[in-house]
Amino acid sequence: MTQVPPQKIYNTVITNSMVATERLEIFMPEKKKLALIIHSGTIDKLLCAFTLGSTAAAMDMEVHLYFTFWGLNMLKKGAMEKAGLPATYRQHEEMLKTKLKEMNYPTPYEMLKRMKASGNVKIYACSPTMEMFGVTRETLIPEVDQIAGAAAFLDIAADADITLLI
Amino acid sequence: MTQVPPQKIYNTVITNSMVATERLEIFMPEKKKLALIIHSGTIDKLLCAFTLGSTAAAMDMEVHLYFTFWGLNMLKKGAMEKAGLPATYRQHEEMLKTKLKEMNYPTPYEMLKRMKASGNVKIYACSPTMEMFGVTRETLIPEVDQIAGAAAFLDIAADADITLLI
Amino acid sequence: MTQVPPQKIYNTVITNSMVATERLEIFMPEKKKLALIIHSGTIDKLLCAFTLGSTAAAMDMEVHLYFTFWGLNMLKKGAMEKAGLPATYRQHEEMLKTKLKEMNYPTPYEMLKRMKASGNVKIYACSPTMEMFGVTRETLIPEVDQIAGAAAFLDIAADADITLLI
Q1: Which end of chain B offers a freer environment for a tag, N or C, measured as fewer CB atoms within 10 Å?
Q2: ipTM over 0.95
């Protein structure tokens, strides 16, 4: 099926009804939107989340990454570099890290910085988690765009095309 | 963009096509809908799920919580009170529980009861899991609305604005 | 509300605008679509993912299962048969496996094969994970339809009705 540029559709529909056009913009956003909650703080989950985020940003999707709980703790300066594997798989940690280096796979923090450079990615830090773990804004990496509660994320997610929790 | 009340849109569109109007109602539900599968039974995941659920209910969204596997086991009377952290983070359990008390953060069960009181939340218990773990209805907390299989959840989720698994 | 067959809507709308009709097909697919990322490789998560997938396929939904990380490792021949519980719950493994046998619950691999037989299910293996773990196509079960990167999954998920990560 041919992809029709949104503007063309609006014009066509305007001839029928102005009101309908206003609504159609909601159903035909110019960019697809991905909203991820990152609850985990282990490297297997961060790599998955950031591969999805980077790829979506490269596809010119709008990407929203909301970090909560163990994920929020990974936004502290220097934390991502120390991310390991969960208890279930800890015996594979050394092997995996060696392999990632051999592949020249970017580290999670490098992935996050590159994603941000695309201009398509927003990073949110969960405010209740910050209080729970005594984390202050100054200790977070500068790539964080906004400190926000669950309501901000739900607002974004309700209009997203893909919502995932990791 | 101005939010147009749904009724006004229906009227306008009716002048063009009755059939189209009937479909539009599907795309413009009065309430946004959140559908969560709660597979986990640890306190870090329950707090995340219930913070999302409570916030969504407070935003007047329709909230559907489907408890399965370890999550289902948390619907047993007295179980949520004993929820701990996963093996990976077990050493932080004491610290976290102390901090939550200091913050007067509601317990998972308190959050669930308050959510239910909003009238926007439905709780489902996964029937195959109940058989797997030999759990009977009588042993579940009274807040459970329905014992249901995966088909019931998929039906709800297919029309939800946000679907997440935790 | 009466369900209107898509073709009828297209016809009606065609009289107003050919362009609008082309777009409407996206919003009214004939089949509902479920897109799952399977990141986990433990039996509690596989059973959940495959119960959702099997049920959706039986409901005549289109099901897309994208296996990554520990999930990808479960696509290796003979791997699913050895899947266990995560560290947090390892002490329940024996009990659960005994119970599943008593219930004649199908094994994860049996579930996957039956799902595939419905014709509604597609299985994807994550290519970067394959490189990371040195997994080759020949070592994967024959039910895998496609080796694909994150972009392929995001394309599918962006049009899905339900997207979940497990």
Answers
A1: N
A2: no
